[in-house]
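User:
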Amino acid sequence: MASSKTRKIIRLAGLVVFYGCLIAGGRWLGLAIEERLQVPGLASAGLPYLGAVAGILLAYVVLTAIPFVPGTEIGVALLMVFGARLAVVVYLSTVMALTLAFAVGRLVPEQRLAGWLGRHGFDRAAGLIETFHQLGPAGRDQYLTQHAPRWLRPLLVEHRMITLVVLINLPGNTLLGGGGGIALVTGLSKLMSWPQFLLGVCLAVSPVPLVVVGASWLGG
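Assistant: Predicted structure:
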């Protein structure tokens, strides 16, 4: 018994350390990119301006799709550097990144994921994924209605698009996996259809670009 408890404590401590490293690494990566998002720096490096911008945007899409990378902060840094000129492009890049993460979540084989979690001691998570795998969309809604805490039911069942919008815009959402992690888990859960997710993401990432464009118009 003691040995079993010790293993669980060690596994939990390892998970906490791993989780902390992901968050710290994602934050460090975001800061490193922000420091290099300076047009003079790009020019001095001898890179063609448009090619450099395209490379930065491509890196932004890939990084934002990765869980625990602070994509929101990187997106804001891009908007601050390039302003309203690229606001629409940054907006579309953010939508593309989160859609990519959602697609990966939808494509993950649920049985293999459940097996991997079970082998590493995450029995409850593995059991939940196995249960969801056997249920259709209606069955998953019914399961959540019956088993989720009462205060969570409206957020998970009735207003999940609003929940997605709030989570993506939540300050410090890197602790929840960032935009990429939230989109990945949403895809994995299969609780939202493609049209629902796309609409939710388009709404969620629009405020900052709209503010930048509006400020540019007012200032001009």
